[in-house]
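Running this now, will post back.
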Amino acid sequence: MATLGTPKDPTPLTALALDGSSNPLNALSELYILQDAAGRWASDSGIDLGGDDVCPSDMLDIIGGTGIGGFYAILFARSELTVDQAIQAHRILEERLFRSEIWLQKQQNDCLDTLNVILDDIFAELDIDVPLDSPFEDVNPSTKCVACVLNAVSAETCRLLRNYRPRGRQSPPCSIRQVLQATFADCEHLPPVKIQHEYFISAVSGYANPVHVLMKELGNAFPKRSSVACVASIGTGRLSPQPLTNVTDSASLARLLQSSELVANEFASQCHALGPFFFRLSVASQTQRERQRSWMVWLKQ
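Update: finished.
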């Protein structure tokens, strides 16, 4: 007797969650961790890059991020940047925005205008083929992407801006530029971003580690694929100690980092019974190399 329904795709999924940070300068470590891990993946897989860098969209099914992590996720999935190009983009942001007087003085409108100019510069200097003002949603993306944001009015539930059309609730139509702006809109340096009839802000304050959100989205993003090969969560951190003189900022940063690690630990404990497919990577980890090696092994399966 014939069975009704669409056959499931047995290919297991690979997913990456990129943390956000209250200080985007701290997030460069995410890219270096990913660069090292991706290079090992290519080497272990026998892939000759010919001197080129790895493009995460070649090795992942879906990437999700919050704040600066969402910025990276968008560049990787929608613009198909390599990790090296993302590092170049971060350097441009760091030199021209994050260390500028208008950023330090929190001049929101000037920061927004400058961000728009810098985004144009990044897409031009890195020779990105996808126009910055083209729709964020792609007809058939090779790698799916979710950027975590909050509604500026309620700021309670995490909202997802997607580069694909999932089952159920749709994301508001928006451009790549608007999504990139929304990931940075912290209401301190940048104002909320209007998309359709709503205003959105960064979700760093409540969803610095988006791994839970990303895992819940897998069913909507891949209704025909139910098995998971691996989920990697990369955290932000400092490449070298930098003192913070402002006690409030220091306490806020400590809470944020603690929250991200708690989410990772909680998720890891929940996944333990299902098998060792979850990997938390961060500069704070003492077993960084071992976890990267394990992650690469699972990616190859």
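Residues 1-6, 238-258, 286-301 have pLDDT under 50 and may be disordered. More later if anyone needs it.
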